[in-house]
Structures are given as C-alpha cells and as structure tokens.
Amino acid sequence: MRIAMVGTGYVGLVSGTCFAEFGHTVVCVDKDEKKIESLKEGKIPIFEPGLEDLLERQIESGRIEFTTDIKAALKDVQAVFIAVGTPSRRYGRDADLSYVYDAAREIAQNIDGYTVVVNKSTVPVGTGEEVERIIREERPEAEFDVASNPEFLREGAAIEDFMRPDRVVVGVTSQKAQDVMREIYRPLNLNETPILFTSRETAEVIKYAANAFLATKITFINEVADLCEKVGADVQQVAKGIGLDGRIGGKFLHAGPGYGGSCFPKDTLALARAGQKFSAPQRIVETVVAVNEDRKARMADKVIDALDGNVRGKKIGILGVAFKPNTDDMRDAPSLTIIPILQQAGAGIAAYDPEAMGHAKTMIEDVEWGNNPYEVAKDADALVIVTEWNEFRALDLNRLAQTMKTRCIIDLRNIYKIPEMAEKNFHYVSIGRKEVPRDARPALKKASGA
Q1: Could you report the per-residue pLDDT of 137-163, keeping only the tens digit for each?
Q2: 252: which DSSP letter?
Q3: SS3 call for 311
Q4: Annotated catalytic residue: which of 18, 228, 263, 408?
Q5: Which of 118, 215, 381, 431 has its CA 20 to 30 A from that of 450?
Q6: Rounded to the nearest 10 degrees, how much is the dihedral formed by the CA atoms of 322, 324, 329, 331?
Q7: Total domain count for the chain?
Q8: Cα(326)–Cα(155) distance, integer angstroms
C-alpha cells in the first residue's frame, strides 16, 4: 500500500520507517526543509537504537521518501497518518492540538480519492470527530474516513515495540476504513498480534488510560519506597513480592526519581483535564501528577541530606540527565528539577550523559560537562546516578574511591548492591532500601584508595 506520514518527529519517523520495513511505500512530509534534506541522506534528528540503520535500508530499497510537498505526498495514498506534536499548553493542562488541526486542513486541501485519515498523534477524546469536521468543512465532496491509531512506543525500544507490539488499537467508524487499516497491519499476522478495532473515542481513551496507569504504578512504588526507608524494608523485594502476582505484574515497579519523558507527564495531565472537562474527575491521576512533581524536588533534598544538609561550595557529579537510558530525550527529565535545586543550594555541578548532553546544554546552565563518569567524579563530594545507562552499572569503584574527594554515592536508580558499596567504604544512599549505619562506614572521610 502507499501511505503518507505527516510529521517526521519521533512517532512519525519511527512509524514511517517501520511501515516501509513492512513492505509498504511510505512518503513522509514535513515543513522543515532542513530536516527533510537530512532525512533524505539518512541522517536522523533523534537518538533511537537501530533506527538510523533501518532507515538507511528503506531509503536504499526505495520504499520510503521525504518531501515538503504535501500535495505530492498525498497523491494515490490509501491512508495518511497525522503524526505531529501535541504538547501541553504552556499555561494550563490542555493538549495543544493546533498542529493536528493544521495538518487536517492541509490534508483536506490535498486529498486525492478515498483516503483514511489516521490520528497517530496522542490526542484527547473527541479529536477524531473534530478532525472529521474540519476536513468535511474544507472539502465537503471529499471521500474519506477518520481513524484513531494510537502509538505505544517506548523510547529506546521503539522499533521492537512497532514490529512486535503487544497489541494494535484502531478506532474506526466504517468497515471500509477498518479493511484499509487491517491491510496496513497485515504483516503482523505472522506474530498473531492482537488488533483491537473499536470506536474512535474508545481508542483515544485507551492511549491516555494506558499511560496514566503505568505512571500510577511508578508513582505507587515510589511512595512505597518512602515507607520502606522509614521502616527498614527493601523496596526491590517488595516490588518483586507484589509483581509475582499475575494480577499486578512486575513491570513499572522500579522505584526512582519520578517519571519524565514525552508521554507520561503530558498524557496524565491531558487525562486529568479531560476528566474535568466532562465532569468525570480523574482523582487518582490528578494525585499521581502532583506526587510525581514533588518527588523530583525531593530527590534533590535526598542529595543534600546525604551531605549532612549542606552542599554550598561542594562539587556534585551527576551521571545521566536524559529521562531514561537509550534516548537523548530531556523532556520533563528529573535532572531538570534536581540540578537547579542543587545549584540554588550552592553546589557546583559536573555532569555526563552518553547521548543527551547536546540537548541538556541548551536547557541547564552553569554545568561542567564531562566526557566520562570518572571526569565527573574527579574531586567530587558526591556522585548522583540519575539515569540508569548500562555504562553506569559496572563503574570501577576502586577508581572512584581514588578520584573522588568524598566516597559518597547517591543512587536514584538502585543499580548497585548495598553490601558491595559498604565493602568499598562508600557512603551509599539509594531508594527505598536500608542504608549501612553511618557509624559503620567512613561516610564523609576523604577517599584514599580502595
């Protein structure tokens, strides 16, 4: 089939490339001429493992092309996907749908024969109806249907998620549109992937509800971690104990500094707003949003407490600034809250991230950026693990002990074992786990070998 993708951001680029891998012919359209020219050369504007190689193969095969000409892009297509941004408005909790509606108007002006217009962007319930109204108003004679096909892509694992999804959700209003969408996803039949056809409104709610539920699991285990710290329990064992229950499951039960990224913060806000709009308050989700924001700030307090309540004039090394590993995404990353609070308390910050420093440098000021963890740790009073990149999981503790001013590590991702850190005489602070008693370690003594 011939498919058009309006928008070449994260969702549009991953989806378009993977549809081409399915064997479809894909035309990706974007107004950004510079981006389009880079994409024609196989250069991608984001970091996503495996995407650049996959895109290069599709370009060589001729199954994918890039253009700024939407009229040409829509010629002879059976479906056009809207994959533009829907950020939260600067003031308020509503999703900004202006890009979606602008795309709908341009599609209406250039539609060529019967076409399924598919909302791939994450949108509030009722958006499909509004897109249909806009197109009908612009082109009353046009033959089209509007469908909702939300994405469920994890940054860092997006290709795997697209090619081998848990499920595909499609909201349609006609059998004709359903047949087109079924044909688009036919390559997934080999894996027996469930394809759930629903109403448009149901599909729109599924996307927000799924992300809100996962955000709730994260926030739940973070609050349980606080209790564990007070009573001497181990949150990792608690998570394992409840996760073995098939009704609960072990995923998204990893205590940490709070969720971030492009989806959870935006989507929980949007679902809470939808509840208010339709007089069906989403009180659990509203609480999740508030607790998560507070948690990020409390992680900075945790660092300050680890240094006896005073970080003025002290050097703190930060390992990882992206909101999660295997991405360069800084949107709503915990580091964007933690670092400024530490700076306001008088600390000097050195930081390193394998992929996100380019973006971070435009968002965080007065940071000394290192080339590796050991540069950041040199003469540091404390080292804080904020993002659990794999290269941070096997740090040379003897080398850190020799290079740091103070053997103090605050591990906000629980990637190290307490006995291991105690053996190396580190003052080790983690999340929801009992610390080695302070008098049993040289917590704030100058590091001097292993």
Answers
A1: 999 999 999 999 999 999 999 999 999
A2: T
A3: coil
A4: 263
A5: 431
A6: -80
A7: 2
A8: 7
Q: Which amino acid is at 253?
A: L
Identify whether residues 107 and 120 lie together within a single domain. Answer: yes
Q: What is the mean pLDDT of the chain?
A: 94
Write out pLDDT tens, residues 208-254.
999 999 999 999 999 999 999 999 999 999 999 999 999 999 999 99
Same domain, 113 and 168: yes
- Per the annotation, the verdict on 263 as an active-site residue is yes
Check whether residue 217 and residue 189 sit in a common domain. no
CA distance 356 to 379: 23
Residues 221 and 316 in one domain: yes
Q: Give dist(CA 427, CA 441) in Å, integer.
A: 7
> Under DSSP, is residue 127 helix (H, G, I), strand (E, B) or coil?
helix
Which CATH number belongs to the domain containing residue 11 in this structure? Answer: 3.40.50.720
Biggest CA–CA distance in the chain, Å, is: 79
User: pTM of this prediction?
Assistant: 0.91
Residue showing tokens 């939407």: 70
Same domain, 273 and 173: no
Range of 60's domain? 2-198
- Predicted confidence at residue 92, as pLDDT, reads 54
Measuring CA to CA, which residue among 206, 211, 193, 76 is closest to residue 128? 206
| C-alpha triplet 49, 50, 52: angle, nearest 5° | 105
**Structural domain ending residue among the three candidates 175, 198, 221:** 198
β-partners of residue 397 are none
Which string of b and e fits 279-309 if b means at least 16 CB within 10 Å? eeebeebbebbebbeebbebbbebbbebbee
Pair (73, 183) in one structural domain: yes
3 contacts 79 by C-beta, under 8 angstroms: yes
Instruction: Indicate the pLDDT class of residue 448, thresholds 50, 70 and 90.
Output: very low
Predicted pLDDT at 16: 97
The H or E element that residue 381 is part of is: none
- The answer to whether residue 383 scores a pLDDT higher than 70 is yes
Mean local confidence (pLDDT), 323-339: 96
Tell me, what DSSP letter sits at residue 72?
Answer: H
